[in-house]
Amino acid sequence: MLWGVEGGQGGGVEFPMVGHSEMRPPAGPQGSYLTAPFDPRFPNTNQTRNCYQNYLDYHRCMKVLTARGRDTKPCLWYYRVFTSLCPLSWVQHWDEQQEKGSFAGKI
Description:
Layout (H helix, E strand, L loop, with lengths): L1 E5 L5 E5 L31 H20 L8 H10 L2 H13 L7
Antiparallel strand pairs: 1-2
Helix pairs in contact: 1-2
Protein name: Cytochrome c oxidase subunit 6B1
GO cellular component, one term: respiratory chain complex IV
Subcellular location: Mitochondrion
């Protein structure tokens, strides 16, 4: 499922939705960025580890907040960062591995 971020000169940017389809981007300037901000934990040019870590953090966040019955909006931050950094083919591969139960990450 896809959802769009409104605004900008090009109309909107579509992001593939992972997990809960009821999540929507927040309104206002915080929801209008298209690239991940600088993360001092990953200062190097190669952002592979940053991509993977934010993918894991998103799924951990969703798991914990859903289990507690809380709002999952805070998880949207991780989703936006990993979709900005990670190639779509990697995300699709990791999602397939999760479905099969063979994903190596600890979620």
